[in-house]
Amino acid sequence: MEKEENLTFCNGLAGILYLSDFLREQNIVDLDIGNIQSIFENYLLFQVRSNIQKNYYDFMHGALGIGLYFLKRNLHAECIFELIEFLYNTAKWFVN
Predict the structure, then answer these.
(1) pTM of the predicted model, to two decimals?
(2) How distant, in Å, are the alpha carbons of 4, 59, 69 from that of 27?
(3) In 10 A of CB 69, how many CB atoms?
(4) What is the CA radius of gyration of the chain?
């Protein structure tokens, strides 16, 4: 049985990276993971695009949580635009 990688915001790589950034910004920890962070971000980029293709936008486990990480880090603007376009195209509009 192969182990599935967990890249989610809830309990995976996106959440861990977001938390490490937060803890550094708050001067709670002095941790520099910049040398490996970009490698992890490549996995996240693949995952967010995969989630968009699957129409899986869940914040905690899908595309939105990973998108928040990229938005916070000001990374992969093209991916953020893909996510916004995905949300716009799949939104249910209620018009009176």
Answers:
(1) 0.85
(2) 33, 27, 19
(3) 22
(4) 15
